[in-house]
Specification:
Blueprint (H helix, E strand, L loop, with lengths): L2 H11 L4 E4 L5 E4 L17 H5 L3 H6 L8 E4 L2 E10 L6 E8 L1 H12 L2 E8 L2 H6 L3 H21 L3 E4 L4 E7 L3 H6 L3 H7 L11 E6 L5 H17 L4 E5 L4 E5 L11 H15 L3 E5 L6 H16 L3 E5 L8 H10 L4 E2 L1 H7 L5 E5 L10 H5 L4 E5 L13 E4 L6 H12 L7 H14 L9 H12 L4 H7 L4 H12 L2 E3 L3 E9 L3 H12 L7 E7 L5 E7 L5 H6 L4 E2 L3 E6 L3 H13 L1
Parallel strand pairs: 9-10, 12-13, 12-15, 13-14, 15-16, 16-17, 19-20
Antiparallel strand pairs: 1-2, 1-5, 3-4, 4-5, 6-8, 6-9, 7-8, 10-11, 18-19, 20-21, 21-23, 22-23
Helix pairs in contact: 10-15, 11-15, 11-16, 15-16, 15-17, 16-17, 16-18, 19-20
Length: about 575
């Protein structure tokens, strides 16, 4: 049977729309059913790519594979099935168009009707009620309940109130896109509710999508809510099978007036230290004053408990040289590198991670895999790649610094006046850095912790000496400030020249200085480290959430203070930030 005759028979008797295409991409023949796909009178001699947008060369390569293309025409969807007619260079392509419209509609309906779970939490409810008069408490509670239920009714959700602060809602996936398009408008609506507190009401929402079953989807929602709360509240987090999305987060985290959690954590941490043979303390890679001061504070707690403790410290940047040398000269602390830390860490060791909760950011992530006993103390907004199932986790994004959290823990876990002068100054220095000299993210508890450190012997003049820089760094910083560029959106940007060992510190200092200019809402400064890595620091006065911007570059931080390390040039990094703000 000749190839031409075979083609004629196929085109005559196959009940599917089909056509024969040669290697040049021209349609050789088609059957009568092809009118179901193309509305033209005839397509013979027409170019297949012009008809479908699919390259014929790709189809020839995919013969015999499981790959297939889907074509939308005339309100229908067709799956292209392909085979060869003939052999070698003279072979033509048989293309069959299988109508899968009903199947795709059924699949879309199945996906749209999948059940999603939302966990809704009223942030700082106890503080809110305590700040509201008795006659208005019921009014505020009723108003937020009405707002939440109205939002649920818009998506035909089934909602139940679990307690005074939490709801659970079940709804169909088809409403998710509308929630995203509105950027979860319920967050703004709740924020507008009038209260007598000195902070606005806010919600945290965790949504689970795509679990294997309803239990799995609800676990996703619980994990998403934990992330929302850990990042400071006033936001919605969507957790899918392999993706997490964040929306909202416009408010500064409200400080918690009750110190009960600090007391509980202090007691639990003391017990864990007592039950451990040795304690390994580490912060994030390239540690700053907050991580270092917190490490000294926890080290003192270990000494009080009579346990051997070690601080993992591989490299010390210029900003820590003065205080680090002082600490070494006292011979009170055991500083070790990664190699020694890995040699002494086992299942019985307690690893305490400070000023970060992300293994990839830690001084040595391997240590976290060598033991099951892990404590995390951090003040950054929770990220999705946090330490999995730590023994004790104390992540409070309202806190100014990890040093503040450690100072509160020490007040409850150790007798009075146990800190030596250097440790008190190191903790105070950590708080000073992260608050930009107590100018941002500073609450009542921040000053109470600072006052306690002052009573413990911290000298503010000595703390200031820790931040003195050499003349070269001062010149680089001044030049960077002078070269700043300004945008209509209230944005200031600059780039530090050269490859600087202290690029990260210089960037943050310049970014802080640029915020002092009238009309500036946020500042971003980028530069290269001595290794060639681009680091960028973002600062804002609260109107622009720099944390979300830095997270999109792979970094993180807080609403007003954030940073990231990227592979591109400083100029490209600044350009990306400006584009994100404008979009």
């Amino acid at each position: 049977m000749s190839e031409t005759l075979f083609g004629k028979l196929v085109s005559s008797y196959i009940p599917l729309p089909m056509c024969i295409v040669n290697r040049n991409g021209k349609v050789v023949r088609s059957n009568d059913h092809i009118s179901e796909v193309f509305i033209y009178d005839g397509i013979e001699s027409a170019d297949f790519f012009a008809l479908t947008g699919i390259k014929v060369s790709e189809l020839f390569e995919e013969v015999g594979t499981n790959n297939y293309h889907v074509l939308e025409r005339n309100g229908k969807q067709f799956r292209l099935m392909i085979n060869l007619e003939g052999e070698g260079e003279d072979a033509n392509l048989l293309v069959f168009f299988d109508d899968i419209t009903n199947f795709e509609n059924l699949k879309d309906r199945y996906n749209n009707e999948k059940v999603c779970v939302a966990r809704i939490n009223i942030d700082n409810y106890d503080d809110l009620i305590a700040s509201t008069s008795a006659e208005k408490r019921m009014l505020v509670s009723t108003e937020v309940d009405r707002t939440v239920r109205k939002w649920a009714s818009k998506c035909n959700g089934s909602i139940n109130k679990l307690n005074n602060v939490q709801y659970i809602m079940y709804f169909q996936y088809s409403y998710v896109e509308g929630m995203i398009e509105s950027k979860f408008s319920i967050l703004d609506e709740v924020r507008q509710i009038e209260t007598e507190a000195d902070f606005p009401m806010s919600l945290s929402i965790g949504i689970g999508i795509g679990g294997k079953n309803l239990v799995g989807t609800e676990e996703y929602a619980n994990a998403a809510l934990d992330l929302a709360l850990g990042r400071g509240g006033d936001q919605a987090v969507i957790k899918r099978v392999s993706k997490i999305e964040y929306y909202g987060g416009k408010l500064q985290t409200v400080e918690k007036g009750n110190k009960g959690k600090s007391r509980v954590v202090a007691h639990a941490l003391k017990q864990l230290i007592d039950q451990s043979k040795r304690v390994i303390i580490m912060g994030h890679a390239n540690p700053d004053m907050d991580a270092f001061g917190s490490a000294l504070g926890i080290y003192r707690m270990c000494l009080i408990c009579g346990r051997d403790a070690y601080i993992v410290m591989n490299e010390v940047n210029e900003s820590l040289q003065v205080i680090y040398q002082q600490a070494r000269e006292t011979e009170n602390y055991q500083f070790i590198n990664n190699k020694k830390a890995e040699a002494i860490t086992d299942k019985d060791a307690l690893v305490i991670l400070l000023d970060t909760h992300r293994p990839s950011y830690s001084e040595n992530a391997k240590l976290l895999e060598m033991t099951d006993r892990i404590v995390v103390i951090d003040h950054h907004r929770r990220a999705e790649d946090c330490v999995a199932a730590p023994t004790l986790s104390y992540i409070e994004s309202y806190a100014s610094s990890t040093a503040e959290l450690v100072s509160e823990i020490l007040q409850y876990a150790a007798p009075k006046k146990t800190l030596i002068k250097l440790e008190a100054e190191a903790l105070l220095a950590g708080m000073t850095v992260d608050t930009n000299r107590f100018a941002v993210k500073t609450g009542v508890r921040t000053f109470e912790a600072a006052a306690w450190l002052r009573r413990a012997g911290a000298d503010t003049a000595e703390v200031k000496r820790f931040f003195q820089t050499d003349m070269e760094d001062f010149k680089v910083r001044a030049k960077c400030i002078a070269a700043a560029e300004f945008y209509d959106e209230g944005i200031a940007t600059s780039i530090t020249d050269g490859w600087n060992e202290n690029a990260q510190v210089l960037n943050s200092q310049v970014a802080d200085e640029l915020l002092n200019i009238k009309g500036i809402k946020a500042s971003f400064v980028a530069g290269r480290t001595e290794r060639g890595t681009t680091v960028i620091s973002g600062r804002s006065l609260g109107e622009i959430n720099v944390q979300i911007l830095m997270e999109r570059l792979g970094g993180g931080g807080h609403l007003t203070t954030a940073g990231a390390q990227v592979e591109c040039t400083p100029e490209e990094a600044i350009h990306q930030v400006i584009e994100m703000i404008r979009n």
